[in-house]
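We modelled the chain as a single entity of 464 amino acids. Its sequence is:
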Amino acid sequence: MSIEWAGLGPELLVRLDRATSEPLRVQLEQELRDAIRSGRLVAGERLPSSRALAAELGISRGLVLECYSQLQAEGFLTSRSGSSTRVAANALASAQAPTRPAPPARLAVDFRPGVPDLTSFPRRDWAWALRGACLGATPTELDYGDPRGVESLRAVLAGYLRRVRGTLGSPDQVVICSGFAQGINLVLQTLADRGIRRLAIEDPGDDDYFTTGPRLGMQVVPIPIDERGIDVAALAASEVRAVILTPTHQFPTGIGLAPERRQALIAWANERDATIIEDDYDAEFRYDRAPVGALQGLAPERVALIGTTSKSLAPTLRLAWVLCPRALLEAVTEEKRLSDRGSPALEQLALAAMIESGRYDRHLRHMRRVYGARRDTLIGALDAHAPHVDLHGLAAGFHAVADLPADADEHTIVEQARERSIGLYAMASYRLSGQSGPPQVVLGFGNLTDAAIERGIRTIAGLL
């Protein structure tokens, strides 16, 4: 598939050697043939006009016209009167151009967890904020600046997190980063540089850490989760000095870390001189429970909190933040400076404007209602079509866990559901230590309409 360049189009890389005896027309013909044969120019792609290419190369227009005419005669190019010159559809490059693999068949209903409603991104508000950022950004804000991020956003976030999440920290402790992935890597790299070689993670949980940890020289140790949250006794026995947690709404079980476990966890961190990394990924969305503050507010010098707009706005923004303990701040900031010199400033200014103006919270309130309604639709659909299936983990976020019969095979059910064009996700795929557990599936409903949820459950009710 060729790109339809607008206007004059970008310059075309052509090398002409005026020091050789070979005529320039012959060189130009060979350069264009090679570009087509190699796939640098693909079938249907527009070439510069003869006038533009002649000006770029410093040669006569007549020479370019002769070259284009010869390549048309050879079948490499095609042209119509009044139209541009393009690579011919049957040129050799069309057969040699790399082919893209066929995309996987699209599911009719996909209960993939962790995906927000992508149709509800507040485009009008974001465009307003981004336009204001473009018009109002100072020359200083357009420079590289502080690798921690734009000062105005760090100040707004520090205040917002204190008010909404109960955190303790000043703007200078906030480091803006490109998504949660960069935030966690900055913190883990800092810990690895300080000799931390064992890292605990929740089980069930995210198996990506089995890749991330070893890259930094860390051994990753899964710690079991029960109905009260992470097993702190097992954590203490593992002899680690760092742990990654989702305490507000554990992923994927949906469990909240119990108060006594929070206290035990802080005591463990103090005793072991350990660091807790708090993944605060979807705390904005709660329904039938009182707000739960961030763990960071209990021990700001032991907890590095990482938040993100990936669930509240959209993953594509790649905006996140680390609220650092002071003991890690300088090293995390230096890691950020070395990795990319700082995240894009205009997007940071836009987010600051969104939060300060109240548009961010207005969007969150709206999405709580949307996700709450979809949660109710999921409950109602299961009550109607699979009444023996129990749901839990529904107090917050936009995914739930469904218990299957004791003799059910999760993977078989997932495969059979996919044959019916319904995406389900087995809890077994999140069990990191390989130990078996009760058969369950994880149902994400954030990016599904009420009608899709109803249709999906109705289609697979017999399997559940």
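As a brief sanity check on the tokenised model: The chain has a mean pLDDT of 92. The first helix runs from residue 24 to 38.
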